[in-house]
Amino acid sequence: MLTLATTTPGEPELFASLQGEGPSIGRPSTFVRLSRCNLACQWCDTAYTWRFEGDNRPHRDTAAFERKANQLSLDETDVAGRIAALPPDRLVITGGEPLLQGAALARMVAALNEQRPGMHIEIETNSTVAPHPALDPLVHQYNVSPKLAHSGNTADLALIPERLSAWAADPRAYFKFVIAEPGDLDEVLSLQQAHAIPGDRLFLMPEGRSSDVLKARSQWLAEICSRNGFRFTDRLHIHLWGDTRGT
């Protein structure tokens, strides 16, 4: 079984849209959002995937979500069938932290490959969890987003050296760092040097949950990317639909 987030109680967050971030920005994609995360970013815009009632990990909104209304378990073959029925030929598996459910994801993707051969499989991850050995050969692209100090996570939990080095060595892995202020660049440069992260696979993205905040931060972040040879990514879905589920 896979544990998914919901858009409304009992309805899995599984939908067709445009990829809003990273190397595939603008591409028509089917999204499936899984529930549960091993980190707790204070600015997380999907806290309903992990900050359930009784979870006291810090978040700027201090909201706690009722688990039954925000989490749903479905058979992997059922999930594969729902994905196969949607038009896009690209699947983005997001969360939460999807790789916490690696074995079930491997079964789902295998079922999807039988029902809809040739789909491009893209997984978004916080970098801390190694891909399950049965899942890894089925994945075409990893969007790896290590969490910097401003996320509120401690480095020993969020920045695991052996995992960062392994991702850097995998040509399928693209790094996406969330930037809240110009000083965050120092931490990115340090991580890039320590783990030999290729600059052409390194994106910087402004932190923000509204179009106004993203536009303001993009002004100076674009200059930082230009000076340092990094790639810039916006959050297209926020500009188009706001901070909403199922987009």
UniProtKB/TrEMBL annotation:
Pathway(s): Purine metabolism; 7-cyano-7-deazaguanine biosynthesis
Binding, substrate: 18-20, 33, 94
Keywords of the record: 4Fe-4S, Iron, Iron-sulfur, Lyase, Magnesium, Metal-binding, Queuosine biosynthesis, S-adenosyl-L-methionine
Signal peptide: none
Binding site for [4Fe-4S] cluster: 37, 41, 44
Family: Belongs to the radical SAM superfamily. 7-carboxy-7-deazaguanine synthase family.
Quaternary structure note: Homodimer.
Full protein name: 7-carboxy-7-deazaguanine synthase
Organism: Novosphingobium mangrovi (ex Huang et al. 2023)
Organism lineage: Bacteria, Pseudomonadati, Pseudomonadota, Alphaproteobacteria, Sphingomonadales
